Amino acid sequence: MVASNGYLSNKKRLVKDTLRVLHIPKGRFEPPLVVLFVGGPASGKTFLASKIQKQLQFCQVTSDMIRAFLVPSPTFYVRETKIVFELVDDVVKELVGDKRNVLYDANLKKRIERARVKRFVEAEGGRVFVIHTICREEVAFKRVMRRNKRIQSGEARGFIIDREYFRFVLNNLEPPGPEEDSFTFNATYENLDLTRLLVKLKKKLGKKITPGGV
User: Fold this and answer.
1) pLDDT digits 0-9 by tens, 66-110
2) Dihedral, CA atoms, 93, 98, 101, 107, nearest 10 degrees?
3) What does the angle CA 80 – CA 81 – CA 83 come to, to the nearest 5 degrees?
4) What tens digit of pLDDT does each residue of 27-68 get?
5) What is the dihedral of CA 125, 128, 74, 134, to 10 degrees?
6) First vs last Cα of the chain: how many Å apart?
7) In terms of CATH architecture, what is 27-202?
8) Phi, psi of 104, rounded to the nearest 5 degrees
9) Which of 99, 113, 118, 160 could lock 128 by a disulfide, CB 3.0 to 4.6 Å apart?
10) Cis peptide before 31 (omega within 30 of 0)
11) What is the spatial distance between Cα 82 and Cα 84, in angstroms, rounded to a whole number?
């Protein structure tokens, strides 16, 4: 794992290396839009982010990808280390400064965390929009159990989540407050209707200042 002092001394290289492996659409927008996610485990955050990326001009930055990059052999206790989110933040800052729309694909469970991101995004000239994913508990936990099996068999990276931790996360989520520009997305069913959300996101995109699709 990269220690905090090691991150600071290698910050520019780590940000550059991360940007190199991201899929960054050609389009630039003024102002750029950063979409944040909040929701329980297996409530469809990453799935939804991938769907949005395929339809609109967004660069998807995932905390899981950053974690795999910084922490090759993670444990339960380091999965949300400060260093991971420092790199996520710094990569997002670079993208927003370059007028790119960003999907900040990490579970920002607390309003104070989302407010922190909003501050630096707005300082870089961007705007923030929050997507709150909800899902019926039993449906989400069945998805968690399927993912646990894939992790145990070595087919996927990640952490085993038991029922106790699953409920702990749910109970500690802070849904968007009235001061947050947000959209609640019901992800109970696999066959998701993205139309309403995509229309809303299109309306929120700034003016495209370089070519490159929608």
Assistant:
1) 766 665 555 544 444 677 888 889 999 999 999 999 999 888 999
2) -10
3) 130
4) 999 999 999 999 998 888 888 998 999 999 999 998 777 766
5) -170
6) 38
7) 3-Layer(aba) Sandwich (3.40)
8) -85, 85
9) 118
10) yes
11) 6
pLDDT value at position 95?
Answer: 96
Our measurement of the distance from residue 156's CA atom to the centroid of its chain's CA atoms, rounded to an integer in Å, reads 18
Torsion angle of alpha carbons 201, 158, 112, 24, nearest 10°? -40
In DSSP terms, which residues pair with 207 in a beta bridge?
30
Give Cβ neighbours of residue 177 (< 8 Å, ≥ 6 apart). Answer: 111
CB of 59 closer than 8 Å to CB of 101: yes
Pairing of strands 59-62, 127-134: unpaired
Q: Which two tokens stand for residue 7?
A: 């991150």
CB-based burial of residue 190 (10 Å sphere; 0-12 exposed, 13-18 middle, 19+ buried)? exposed
The answer to whether 135 and 190 have CB atoms below 8 angstroms apart is no
Element (H, E) at 60: strand 59-62
Strands (E), 40-181: 59-62, 102-107, 127-134
Both tokens of 44, joined, read 């469809």
